[in-house]
């Protein structure tokens, strides 16, 4: 990202936060959580569409010296957009008619923490699920979603070592702490011991018919050492084709991709395929002890 783009992104972040000061979080949640879907996935798409046009801003979680839960409903990168939409969906499912706005807000923050941090606990920078394969593994273990890639046409099992964060420490100031570096190295080592299913780019069109609206679509990185490059929600358009509902750095805002999913990935040479996860239908979180 150029210096001009970084400055513009920073200004957007400041403006978006300032605009949001007049709207308490509970009020924003009440507005966003109104959805009429029959399933959590349908609700996630409805909620996600309400954020269309919100600006794309990167690094919104890294403005504090100490790791803490950051809630920003006014600007997103692709991951924070997804986490916000899913946390609202989960909180909405938990909400009872008698719940107060404060209780709804607490439920939202609980789920946002579970989605973003290992085992749902904030314990420094390394407890954040930076690698999306780690994010997927942890949230599947916690019972929030299921990796369905292996069930889709064209899927294959692969192993891809990750090393991007420990190799590019200059991009992550927190990695200058030797303890954080060691923790991230352990995370990478753990991920590298596991194979996973993915769908190569040439088979995505074949798989589109089996991907459901509201599925979480993770776009694999072609470069060595990096697992995922982008993420969004599957959304079916009137033409019957599957598109991506996502926070787009290219377009600078939350959008529905103008290209169908398979064409979108084909047009990005730095992507090699996709993985797909699905929200658990009843959203029941099993008893879990980290």
* Whole-number total of structural domains: 1
Number of helices: 10
CATH fold title: Putative xylanase fold
Q: Report the span from N to C terminus.
A: 38 Å
Mean pLDDT, to the nearest integer, reads 90
- Based on Cα principal axes, name the global outline: globular
Structural class: alpha+beta
SS strand fraction: 15-25%
- CATH superfamily (homologous) name: Putative xylanase like domain
Helix fraction, binned, reads: 25-40%
Can you summarize this structure?
By secondary structure, the protein is α+β, with helices and mostly antiparallel strands. It contains ten helices and eight strands.
What's the SSE blueprint?
Elements: H1 3-20, H2 25-32, H3 40-49, H4 78-94, H5 101-116, H6 132-141, E1 145-147, E2 156-158, H7 164-167, H8 178-192, E3 196-200, H9 204-207, E4 216-221, E5 228-236, E6 242-248, E7 253-256, H10 261-266, E8 271-279
Antiparallel strand pairs: 1-8, 2-3, 3-8, 4-5, 4-8, 5-6, 6-7
Helix pairs in contact: 2-5, 3-4, 4-5
Write a structural description.
With 290 residues, the protein is of the alpha+beta class. It has one domain (3-279): Orthogonal Bundle (Putative xylanase fold), CATH 1.10.3670.10. The chain has ten helices and eight strands. Strands 1, 2, 3, 4, 5, 6, 7 and 8 form an eight-stranded antiparallel β-sheet that branches. It is globular and about 50 Å long. The model is unreliable at 1-22 and 282-290 (pLDDT under 50).
């Amino acid at each position: 990202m150029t210096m001009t783009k970084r400055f513009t992104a920073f200004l957007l972040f400041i403006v978006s936060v300032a605009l949001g000061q007049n709207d308490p979080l509970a009020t924003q949640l009440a507005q966003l959580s109104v959805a009429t879907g029959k399933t959590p996935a349908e609700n996630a798409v409805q909620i996600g569409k309400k954020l269309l046009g919100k600006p794309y801003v990167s690094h919104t979680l890294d403005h504090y010296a100490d790791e803490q839960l950051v809630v920003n409903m006014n600007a997103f990168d692709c991951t924070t957009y997804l986490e916000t939409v899913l946390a609202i969906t989960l909180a909405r499912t938990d909400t009872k008619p008698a719940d107060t706005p404060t209780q709804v807000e607490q439920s939202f923050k609980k789920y946002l923490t579970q989605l973003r941090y290992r085992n749902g606990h904030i314990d420094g920078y390394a407890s954040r699920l930076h690698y999306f394969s780690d994010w997927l593994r942890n949230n599947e273990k916690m019972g929030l979603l299921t990796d369905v890639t292996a069930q889709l046409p064209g899927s294959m099992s692969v192993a891809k070592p990750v090393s991007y964060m420990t190799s590019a420490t200059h991009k992550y100031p927190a990695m200058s702490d030797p303890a954080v570096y060691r923790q991230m190295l352990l995370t990478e080592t753990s991920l590298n011991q596991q194979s996973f299913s993915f769908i190569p780019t040439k088979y995505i069109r074949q798989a589109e018919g089996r991907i459901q609206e509201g599925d979480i679509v993770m776009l694999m990185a072609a470069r060595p050492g990096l697992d995922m490059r982008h993420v969004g929600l599957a959304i079916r358009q009137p033409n019957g084709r599957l598109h991506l509902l996502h926070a787009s750095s290219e377009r600078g805002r939350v959008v529905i991709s103008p290209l169908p999913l398979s064409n979108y990935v084909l047009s990005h040479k730095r992507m090699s395929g996709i993985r797909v996860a699905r929200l658990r239908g009843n959203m029941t979180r099993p008893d879990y002890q980290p």
